[in-house]
Every structure is written in structure tokens, then in C-alpha cells.
Amino acid sequence: MGSDHYCLRWNNHQSNLLGVFSQLLQDESLVDVTLACSEGTSIRAHKLAQHQQLTIAEER
């Protein structure tokens, strides 16, 4: 039995992914976290975005 190999490419991956997350947030689709701000306001977000921000902060 032979094994087939494939190479998949996704042009403009970063801009496409950011567009998808932006649309999901705008529609509040799959929004699973509410961040409470000191001014009494709240921000709806995705856990993935929160995790990414924490990862960036830890690297600094």
C-alpha cells in the first residue's frame, strides 16, 4: 500500500483568520467570556483571544 502525501496551502492565512474572528465577535457567535472593566462596563470576548493576550504578556 502506497502512502500519498499532500501539501496544503492557505494564502493570506493571517488576514483570513483575523476576519473570521472579527465576524464571530461582531455576531457574538461563540463568545464565551465576559471581561469586567473597572468603569463598570463589560466586554464580550472569545477565550482564545484572552488566552493569546495572556501568552503575549507572559513572553514580555
TrEMBL record:
<dbReference type="GO" id="GO:0006357">
    <property type="term" value="P:regulation of transcription by RNA polymerase II"/>
</dbReference>
<dbReference type="InterPro" id="IPR051095">
    <property type="entry name" value="Dros_DevTransReg"/>
</dbReference>
<dbReference type="GO" id="GO:0005634">
    <property type="term" value="C:nucleus"/>
</dbReference>
<keyword id="KW-0539">Nucleus</keyword>
<dbReference type="InterPro" id="IPR011333">
    <property type="entry name" value="SKP1/BTB/POZ_sf"/>
</dbReference>
<protein>
    <submittedName>
        <fullName>Uncharacterized protein</fullName>
    </submittedName>
</protein>
